[in-house]
Amino acid sequence: MRVETSELADVLVFVPEPFQDARGFFTRTFDADIFDAAVGRTGAAASFLQDSQSRSVQGVVRGMHGRSGRGEAKLVRCAQGAVHDVLVDIRRDSPTFGVQQAFLLDDTEFRHLYVPPGFLHGFQALTPTADVCYRIDRPHDPAEDLGVAYADPDLEIAWPQAVTVVSPRDAAAGSWAELLEKV
Ligand SMILES: Cc1cn([C@H]2C[C@H](O)[C@@H](COP(=O)(O)OP(=O)(O)O[C@H]3O[C@@H](C)C(=O)[C@@H](O)[C@H]3O)O2)c(=O)[nH]c1=O
Known about the structure:
Largest sheet: 6 strands, antiparallel
Radius of gyration: 16 Å
Shape: globular
Order of helices and strands: EEEEHEEEEEEEEEHH
CATH superfamily: Jelly Rolls
Distance between the termini: 34 Å
Number of helices: 3
Bound molecules: dtdp-4-keto-L-rhamnose
CATH architecture: Sandwich
CATH topology: Jelly Rolls
Strand content: 35-45%
CATH class: Mainly Beta
């Protein structure tokens, strides 16, 4: 498994090596030793507490979501289909504060993102269905949800397809300007 840096400080991309044969494929999706070495902290992999999966139909956008308090670290991959995944750095003390980057996550290359605490995260499903799996290092707590509108004019996220469905929470999310008053 190869580890790549990104344009965003501390965000890493794990690139596995799927084995293809007549049956299909096999791929390792996570390796604790490689993860600990990449983030430079023994036991870091063991800090992930919840593993979740969502299925989205084509054009769905989920996001942009963050977490208040000490935030949460996330490992994100697309197990089936493809998504346009977007991160925005909301760490005031980061050299990439306010910077966004998009990643293609799919079931061909199985790129796996490590997102440290202090980011907004969202994605759009690019295929008839797309399954996104993610691990978080703190139990989910809706009281700490942060959100910014996926179509915020200041963020100007270039979603590649027409947006088909969003949740009521995402439709009512606040602006980037409002979020900046909280971080
Ligand atoms: C995220 C989450 C939701 N839920 C519940 C709450 C709700 O009833 C239902 C659906 O929740 P949501 O609408 O918030 O799900 P969703 O919009 O898919 O939220 C997710 O979006 C992506 C972009 C992320 O980065 C995730 O961290 C998470 O925020 O599932 C959990 O029980 N645990 C969880 O970890």
